[in-house]
């Protein structure tokens, strides 16, 4: 790393570790203006932290692509059958009164 | 309230004392849009019917929330479908029995998330089928002066898409998710997949907002490190 970069880094109020620790807040856009200015000042002189941020952001975006799956029809039917059986066996009203009296 | 508590603990049925804003100013611009479909929240009438012991109301609520809660349970349980099914059974039966403890101070879905998270984590704790790995190897390293230990830090964000098909990336992420601590995985699922705010996650897990932030960041760092290593780069 060129010496000039190190010198300029020393002028920045934040270290790379502090920048990494603030990454979530920065990407969520919930930093105080002063902290954000220091954060962006550091990014302006530190390509390592820029690359770190890009890969951090990419990780979050990739995780979000996992998305939702449909609940399998047989699972939905099984659970509904279970619930109906449970409520029928005890009796919904009895169950309701029991739980409220016990509460 | 600790997330380590069992679903049998009556305190977990209590409603979080947080009123969620109808809009979400300042939401994480990285986060996916909230996945709650419009109109997916149960209205007061339906909840009142549930409180009155109406089985039909329970079935309507089941149809409203079962897909979402099943997915959350499935992700927290590391893809164990039979366990996820049992969790959902427990959640809706518990919702029917304990709905009188829901006072309307939070969204009904937040209360259901709370039941789901507790049931899923309780099941993991009892099963001892953990795939957790130590995080340290996959976290960034820094020198004593706070600078990156390994330089240069490589930007592999474009490489990921170039070298891996979308389903391969999803496979890598899914496997890495399974290796997180169960509570951290829960936080990631609720945040980065479900789009909940830190406050909502805190209410659903019993963690403090500060703890949610810390766990979320650490879990993301771990996932980032796992992806970097998979691509042949340093986790640093």
The secondary-structure element order of chain A is HHHHHHH
* Proportion in β-strands of chain B: under 5%
* Number of domain units of chain B: 2
Topology-level CATH name of the largest domain in chain B: Rna Polymerase Sigma Factor, Chain: A
Helical fraction of chain B = 55-70%
- What's the N-to-C terminus distance of chain B? 35 Å
Compute the number of structural domains of chain A: 2
**pLDDT average of chain A, as an integer?**
82
Distance between the termini of chain A: 66 Å
Largest β sheet strand count, sense and barrel closure of chain B: none
Q: Give helix and strand order of chain B, one letter per element, not per position.
A: HHHHHHHHH
The CATH class of the largest domain in chain B is identified as Mainly Alpha
- Principal-axes shape call of chain A: elongated
> Largest contact between protein chains?
A-B, 57 and 65 residues
Helix-strand category of chain B: mainly alpha
Number of E-state strands of chain A: 0
